[in-house]
Amino acid sequence: MAEIIIVRDQAEAGSLAASIIIGKISSNPATVLGLATGSTPLSTYAAVAQAVRDHRIDVSGVRGFALDEYLGVPPQHPESYRSVITREVVEPLGLNPDQVFTPRGTGEHIGQAGAEYEALIAGAGGIDLQILGIGSNGHIAFNEPGSSLASPTRIKALAEQTRRDNARFFGNPDEVPTHCITQGLGTILRARQLVLLAFGANKAQAVAAALEGPVSSVVPGSVVQQHPHATVIIDEEAASTL
Ligand code: GLP
């Protein structure tokens, strides 16, 4: 059973999640972090960045793996997850960009990109601490409802709801990609520790289904129930239907 912590607001969630990250890096300077995109982890990244500026932590040895990437969006596109991770994590924290990886969403033999990414993660010794958000339909990373609980990194179609949720990042809703490449639920379960964050009333149903419903591919976030070391940090609104 995941540990569930209900906090007042995103700032408190961010400092709490950051303290978990900082503790991990303090005990292992070569920590491998799993990095989520989206608005949810921003207060966490901001709190870690502050700790770096205050010289409370040395992140020079930290490595990172993003959860997912849009298919067909080149890395230099401002809304590619490569760009987002660079802007929101690598630069503010001062991570070594060569040690932070995102799945490849373009290029030749794209069908092999998932296996390549799994090999990269395995080569780094696996992910020590995976940061997760959750989609309003219960997805984690881009594992949409219907994802196998054992799935590896692979290409997936995006749910219409996810495309609508993410349309705000693209000029025109039609420009939201239809497919992605995402770490699988199996990949995420192999991370040694999970921290899942969720805020706001529009996440309440997904949070309740993930934490209190059956573990099922219908609600991908429910895999946190199967993980031996998962912490869920949510605000009152996201917790309102627990
Ligand atoms: C995106 C990402 C997920 C993220 C989720 C929630 O589609 N692929 O990793 O957790 O949606 O996003 P937000 O945190 O902006 O609500």
From TrEMBL:
Keywords: Carbohydrate metabolism, Hydrolase. One of its GO terms (molecular function) is glucosamine-6-phosphate deaminase activity. InterPro entries: Glc/Gal-6P_isomerase (IPR006148), Glucosamine6P_isomerase (IPR004547), Glucosamine6P_isomerase_CS (IPR018321), NagB/RpiA_transferase-like (IPR037171). It comes from the Bacteria. It is an enzyme of class 3 (hydrolase). Pathway: Amino-sugar metabolism; N-acetylneuraminate degradation; D-fructose 6-phosphate from N-acetylneuraminate: step 5/5. Belongs to the glucosamine/galactosamine-6-phosphate isomerase family. NagB subfamily. Catalyzes the reversible isomerization-deamination of glucosamine 6-phosphate (GlcN6P) to form fructose 6-phosphate (Fru6P) and ammonium ion. This is Glucosamine-6-phosphate deaminase. It comes from Paenarthrobacter aurescens.
